[in-house]
Write a structure and sequence with these properties.
230 residues; alpha/beta; Nucleotidyltransferase, domain 5; 2 domains; five-stranded mixed beta sheet; 5 strands; globular; disordered C terminus
């Protein structure tokens, strides 16, 4: 007897960010996100964006789901169509003084302060209640839920990547243009050969290990796959 075909399962629902969270907030509301909390070198960046609901760029999504080329194209569109946008950084020295969490908060403050329009509310990716220039709502996985946060994540990521490419020219040999400061094997090799440079985060465990003259094991390779997207 022929077997009955197995019932077809419904296709997984494609989840894309929208403006539902924004419409439930006081206006103008900005989305806020950071980039670069995990790398061993370079600053942490943040973006803040107030979108025009009538002019949302097509294809806007979590920066981690986009190629570098797509992010760069969307950066141009976001800056051209948004009501306001801003980018902020916190330096390696500030990361060392404040710790990476509070340095990320500082970068977020600077991104909001750079907006040409003052927001009355902010949607912030993650679950930490940063003290920002306006009231906030934290949104876990926000860059995949809120179009404003997704836009902010793109600006933060592209701005930091661009800076790390510049740092690759200033500090040759480390491969910053490729791994953007994350713990790639090529970065581990360069650290052991050359030692840390001025933009390495001296408080990070692998950097401290090299400063003590110890070798890094492969277990320290913590490359964020997003860093090498092309």
């Amino acid at each position: 007897m022929a077997r009955k075909p197995a019932p077809l399962l419904p296709a997984p629902r494609l989840v894309v960010p929208d403006l539902l969270l924004e419409t439930a907030c006081p206006s103008p509301v900005c989305g806020v996100d950071e980039a670069g909390r995990g790398p061993w070198a370079g600053p942490v960046s943040a973006g803040a964006v107030i979108l025009d609901p009538a002019r949302v760029p097509a294809g806007l999504n979590d920066s981690k789901k986009l190629t570098a080329k797509a992010r760069e194209g969307l950066e141009i569109e976001i800056k051209a169509s948004a009501i306001a946008w801003g980018v902020g950084f916190a330096s390696v020295d500030e990361i060392g003084e404040l710790n990476i969490l509070h340095a990320a908060g500082l970068a977020m403050c600077r991104a909001i302060e750079a907006l040409a329009v003052t927001p009355v509310f902010a949607l912030v990716d993650g679950n930490y209640p940063f003290k920002l220039p306006c009231p906030i709502k934290t949104v876990v996985g926000g860059d995949g839920k809120s179009l404003s946060i997704a836009a902010a994540s793109i600006l933060a990521k592209v701005a930091r990547d661009r800076l790390m490419i510049e740092m690759d020219e200033r500090y040759p040999g480390y491969g910053f243009a490729g791994h953007k400061g994350y713990g790639a094997p090529v970065h581990i090799d360069a650290l052991e050969r050359l030692g840390p440079c001025e933009i390495h985060r001296a408080s990070w465990a692998p950097v401290q290990k090299v400063l003590r003259g110890e070798r890094l094991s492969a277990s320290f390779a913590t490359l964020d796959a997003e860093a090498l997207q092309t």
